[in-house]
Amino acid sequence: MKPISLVACLAAIAGAQSVTIQVLADSGRISISPWIYGRNNSLSLDPSKPVSDSLISLYKDAGVRAFRENGGNNATKYNWRRKLTSAPDWYNNVYGADWDYAATTLQNQLPGTQGVSAFQLLGWAANNTNNNFGDYAWSQAWDAETHQDTLWKGHSWTDFSAPRQNLAGGGVVDTVIHVTPSGSYDMSHALVEGDATKYLQVWPADSTVGILPHWFGLGGLGLDSTRFRYWGMDNEPDCWNGTHDDVDSDLTVHTLSVEDYVQRWVKVAVAARRAFPGIRLVGPVSASEWQWYNWPTGAISYKGSTYCYPEYLIKRLAEVQDSTGVRMLDVYDIHLYLSASSQTDILQTHRLLWDSVYVDPNANGVKTVYGGQWKDTVSHQEVFLRVQKWLDKYFGTGNGIKMGSTESGINGAVSSSASPTAVWYSSLLGTMADHGAELFTAWSWYPGMWETLHLFSRYAHSTRVKSVSTLDSLVSGYSSISAAGDSLLVILVNRDASNSHATTVNLSGFAPVGNATTLQLAGLNGETFHSHTSNALKSGTATVSGTNLSLTLPKMSITAIQLLGMGHAVTGVHPRASPTAKVTMLPGILQVEAGEEGTVRILDFQGRTVASSSLHQGLADIAVGGLARGLYTVQWPGGLKRVALLGD
């Protein structure tokens, strides 16, 4: 008999149980990062195939704020000089990819957004397209043959992971279907491995970091560095022995140790900070739940103790930061590819991040969290809570390192249905906001996600306030307040697939004026989002009585409650205007750290504005290479400072 999950039991017991949501408008105020409203693979990397105007409009209308355009696995061997990348999931063949073009598109056509890019730490980058495997000719010839083996009937050779064979560089195809011990089929290893040196070149730290002056420096592309602040420390290094086994394999001498990865990280971090002090370094970009805790070689020994992968990495980066004075990490990043398969379990996956109570029925890698040793009794993920404890232990409290996820995907049990997908995504967005995550860019995109993104990004305020539910496993509240304290948004998520729930919202620290407006997503079927004005949001009203209101939440729904009234203004959360600022001279760039949003201007001796730039998260980079030698005034919201520029 299949075991019944705890959540399913709760749902059965709950039935149509009423729920109370307590919103504490003066408690738990946290700045909500706009960069949690993000996506992957939205912009073209090919200048001959520009992204359409209709898609640009869709991104703006839906409220996409962060764009990760590095290609995931294809980022690891990217050569920005040649605009080439090697595709590890397609024979390692080398193809064109123009990151410059994607970045320029973002800057010119998507104002107010943030780009997320990546450095290459593997040490190899694509060099040429002359040694590709002839995939098209081969597949045509293969499909034309008659195969007597019953395993092949009804299948293409691509069904058996053959594109993972290392065939670029003169490899020879293995056409034999291998049966693994688990009974699955595998064709991932070539009969003769291709020679990686024929299509790759050595790519050290200075080569990968060279993209920074190319984008932002004097004589470069002229991109605004404040629009491209986030840079991943490569992509999923914990499974390079599979994805990039042409140069890092458990079958060869090239296998990378975790300390090798640390040393490569350090070299890139030091070079990147030197070129771009305001950079936000994002890593380790772990692949999935097993890799959240494990390096391929298992437990890690260091100075007489053993560690799991994340604790060792954090400890070593902290040691290097202490010895060099160079900041090593800004956002701890994991990928959310999860093993849950039932709809019930998938709708609880947001609880794997910070929830210390939730028992993960699919727990696996977390069982090695204590020194890399397997403990079958461990089933609470709370992965970001664990990471935060290690960060505080080794970097010290108040270290400023945030959490994030740059890829995510779910099982088909939910992804084909718009309402469950919308609810899953809303739970993640609400949880990210509740805990101050800085970055979230989904990889897979399903019907229902556009609707959810639009609701959160376009209607939520910039400061989170605390919400408490009496039945949080099924019905949660995610609340935010305006800077002036005069508007409150409460988003209620009902994950129950069987029941609607009568819900009462009690307000504390906010006195509503008039009745509430509601915006609701329920009963979604297929893709329904077309624009800000054409979508599935249904508007309504809810009667407010004093500081309470009641409404019924449909099964599998998201309901936003918009309230106007009187609360305390937001103070001490966002950076405020300051009479002082940090002004740093870089080659061709004047960098200003000056507090809140606004404009930084450079004035000449006659008070004329000769250069300006917008502050993004309190930071602005202004190109000054063309200004004549002399004294100038730097002006920002709340202050000014005289500086001497050397000129050309």
Output the keywords.
648 residues; alpha+beta; Immunoglobulin-like; TIM Barrel; 16 helices; disordered N terminus
Radius of gyration in whole Å, from Cα?
A: 26 Å
Which shape, going by the Cα principal axes? globular
Ends apart, CA distance between termini? 78 Å
Name of the CATH architecture of the largest domain? Alpha-Beta Barrel
CATH class of the largest domain, anyone?
Alpha Beta
Number of domains: 4
Strand-residue fraction? Answer: 25-35%
Multimerization status: single chain
Contiguous low-pLDDT stretches (5 residues minimum) are 1-14
Summarize the structure.
Strands 1, 2, 19, 20, 21, 22, 23, 24, 25, 26, 27 and 28 form a 12-stranded mixed sheet that branches. An 8-stranded parallel barrel has the order 3-4-7-12-13-16-17-18. 47% of the residues are buried.
